[in-house]
Amino acid sequence: MLAGAATAVAVAGALLALADTATPLRAPCTLFFLLMAPAVAIAAALRGLDPFGRAVAALAGSVAVNMLVAQGMLAVHRWSARGGLVAVTGLSLVLLLLVLLRERISGKRPQK
């Protein structure tokens, strides 16, 4: 139930930021989305670690992804809050899809 509530808050944050609504909930919900979307994708890739180590590594990786996206937008002089949100979402989805693809491929291989 807690995961469902977190997902709802994250999706609400992304939608509020993309719609550019002037509500006081936009900033905290969007920040939650920007931290949790890459963290979930990175945590899925690090299934071999213990839970605490995976959580710490996923949050650190999430901060790194956000900083790299921001630095990239600043480097090309194309700063945009919506663009950053879309870029972080895209990177998170690509990472999550790669993890799912790896699991699917490794599941079909015969084990020695």
UniProtKB/TrEMBL annotation:
Domain of life the protein comes from: Bacteria
Protein name, per record: Uncharacterized protein
Source lineage: Bacteria, Bacillati, Actinomycetota, Actinomycetes, Kitasatosporales
UniProtKB keywords: Membrane, Transmembrane, Transmembrane helix
Membrane-spanning residues: 31-49, 56-77, 83-101
Organism annotation: Streptomyces actinomycinicus
